[in-house]
Specification:
384 residues; mainly beta; OB fold (Dihydrolipoamide Acetyltransferase, E2P); 3 domains; 7-stranded mixed sheet; 6-stranded mixed sheet; 22 strands; 12% helix; Replication protein A 70 kDa DNA-binding subunit B/D first OB fold domain-containing protein; RFA1B/D_OB_1st; NA-bd_OB-fold
């Protein structure tokens, strides 16, 4: 029988033959009790169509030894239903359920079937997903910080909880709260690789709101991956960047544009600008010269280091048209700070450091959008 597409599957159709890759595989558990509910798979065909699979507890041992993530199989004799569940990890409304009659045949010659498929959210899309949990989302970012696991207690149960912060490719830093068995997945990654160079994909997360702060939260379907061989992860490994020296009131700072923002503003990647610079002799590319002598607003992120006399480096998140109003600092819980700098009014971090490692300092005079001090924004910022 010719291989069929996952799109051919319908709830009343029981006979189907197609080659599918096991794109994801995890044990579905209750996030509060850690009770095993089912073995879960995401199957994907050669056209990138995917479907969620659940294997009941009584059949887990049988099929867990037969199936491996990223391998390809022909699977027959199963039930198909609409999910009818509050949460689902992907958009497909259908769910495959294995039975005792289900057969699985491994395909040794792997056809051209994609390995992974995710639906990544960026920070600006989080608000739109708040309260919409019927289809879970995925997030990819560089691990910045992680807390110790703590136990949260309710009237009926205790649950382990850990907070991570990820820096997204756009430069935004977001919080991800992981629970229960997902903490075990994460800890295994840290134990094996340490804290350096961890680009994480965290699948099947929801968006929550705690004290007016949006964050991601793991689910019973969440899997944590490290440094996957996919474009979204490779984007973090670029070796090219653009550095701009910006002057304000006789002080200067280096503004760094990484690949994403540089390409969005100039239309060329850092690598393309590098090659073009080599063709122009001693002159920088025209794309860079257009910024020289021009007043712009820079949405930047900075860290305060220990050396008061060193030149500050800022990571550029956006380049905007100038306005007459000054913008202020936005200081995040992880200690990083976002700022809007408008041309000559470019904000600089204070140089009043204590000089002691581990001692925080305050930014005393952040400004509101009208240029007046806003003391509500004061927080301690840890020194790096």
């Amino acid at each position: 029988m010719d291989s069929q597409s996952i799109r051919d599957l319908e709830s009343e159709k029981k006979i189907w033959s197609g080659q599918c890759r096991v794109s994801r595989m995890w044990v579905g558990v209750n996030v509060h009790t850690n009770k095993v509910l089912h073995l879960d798979l995401i199957l994907m065909d050669s056209k990138g169509n995917d479907i969620w699979v659940q294997i009941p507890p009584v059949l887990i041992e049988k099929f867990k030894t037969m199936l491996k993530e990223n391998h390809v199989y022909i699977i027959k004799n199963f039930d198909i239903n609409t999910t009818g569940l509050k949460y689902r990890p992907i958009g497909n409304p259908y769910l495959i359920q294995f039975s005792r009659k289900t057969t699985v045949h491994h395909v040794p010659e792997v056809p051209a079937i994609p390995t992974f498929k995710f639906s990544f959210l960026n920070a600006s899309q989080m608000a739109g997903k708040l309260g919409h949990v019927e289809i879970l989302s995925d997030v990819v970012g560089q691990l910045r910080t992680h807390s110790d696991a703590i136990t949260t207690t309710s009237l009926t149960r205790k649950t382990m909880r850990k907070e991570l912060t990820l820096q997204l490719i756009e430069g935004d830093v977001v919080k991800v709260v992981i629970w229960g068995r997902v903490i075990e997945q994460f800890d295994k990654i840290i134990d094996a690789h340490g804290d350096d160079q961890n680009i994480l994909v965290i699948s099947a997360v929801s968006v929550g709101d705690f004290k007016d702060e949006l964050s991601f939260s793991s689910s019973g379907s969440t899997v944590v991956y490290r440094n996957l061989d996919i474009p979204a992860v490779k984007a973090f490994a670029t070796g090219y960047r653009v550095q701009l020296e910006v002057q304000s009131d006789l002080k200067s700072a280096v503004f760094v544009l990484f690949e994403y923002e540089g390409k969005r503003y100039f239309g060329l990647s850092g690598h393309e600008l590098f090659l073009k610079n080599g063709q122009n002799g001693d002159l920088p590319p025209d794309e860079l010269l257009q910024l020289v002598g021009v007043t712009k607003r820079f949405h930047v992120k900075f860290k305060i280091n220990l050396f008061a006399d060193s030149q500050a480096d800022f990571t550029v998140l956006r380049i905007l048209e100038p306005t007459s109003k000054g913008e202020g600092y936005m200081i995040h819980k992880d200690g990083s700070s976002s700022s809007i700098a408008s041309g000559p009014a470019c904000s600089q971090p204070s140089s009043d450091h204590s000089g002691q490692s581990g001692i925080g300092k305050s930014i005393e005079t952040p400004v509101d959008s009208d240029g007046t001090p806003d003391n509500k924004l004061k927080r301690k910022m840890p020194l790096e």
